Amino acid sequence: MKKISESAVRRLSLYLRLLQEADAAGAETISSGELADRGGTTSAQVRKDLSLFGSFGKRGLGYSVHELLSRIRSILGLQRSWRVALVGAGKLGSALFSYRDFETRGFDIRAVFDRDPGKVGTELGGLTILADEAMESTVRGLEIDMAILAVPADAAQQVVDRLVKAGVRGILNFAPARLKVPRGVALKNVDVTLELEGLAFAVSAGGQGIGNRE
């Protein structure tokens, strides 16, 4: 498979949301220009992004909203439900768990783990928080596909190693740590501090430093 840039995948996710809005409004077709205007990019960029995955639409007629929605969902792997585990039930983990849009997008959190004895056995959104020691067996038993990491930085790599051995193929990491995973396992890092620093640069540059366009 040819290598696709992270920015292109992000824009694809944005197009998906815009198409869902258009579909909800009853639109049957949409042009690259309309997607560009709503997404803060250019029609040329939209066409370039979509061309990475094949041929879409017809010149002068635009794209079928329903067909493009289906194709993008398939490209992003959203034609199925993903089984997810949350590791870390602190303030960040609890906030992430309460984000109900996960489920509507096809990400089903099946298990929550924590090493704090005060949290183990309590409920979080209808799920009982499980002990850290039960992680491997539970992950295997539930056939977890992905994990969300909301643990301290000094514990993150050990947790990742355990999750990978238990069969997890994708990890979304919120810990401020540089982690290593073997080939075949996808790792995405979300560093809020880095994002804020990028935002500070943009504000300092008068909004001209960085943006949505490429």
Attribute tags:
214 residues; 43% helix; 9 helices; Rossmann fold; two-stranded antiparallel ribbon; six-stranded parallel beta sheet; alpha/beta; Arc Repressor Mutant, subunit A
Characterization of this structure:
By secondary structure, this protein is of the alpha/beta class. It folds into two domains: 6-75, Winged helix-like DNA-binding domain superfamily/Winged helix DNA-binding domain (Arc Repressor Mutant, subunit A), CATH 1.10.10; 82-193, Rossmann fold (3-Layer(aba) Sandwich), CATH 3.40.50. It has nine helices and ten strands. The chain has helices at 6-24, 32-39, 43-51, 65-75, 91-97, 101-104, 135-142, 153-165, 192-204, and strands at 29-30, 63-64, 82-87, 107-114, 123-124, 127-128, 130-131, 146-149, 170-173, 186-189. Strands 7-4-3-8-9-10 form a six-stranded parallel β-sheet. Helix 8 links the parallel strand 8 (146-149) and strand 9 (170-173). Helix 1 (6-24) runs antiparallel to helix 4 (65-75) and helix 2 packs across helix 3. The model has no long low-confidence stretch (mean pLDDT 90).
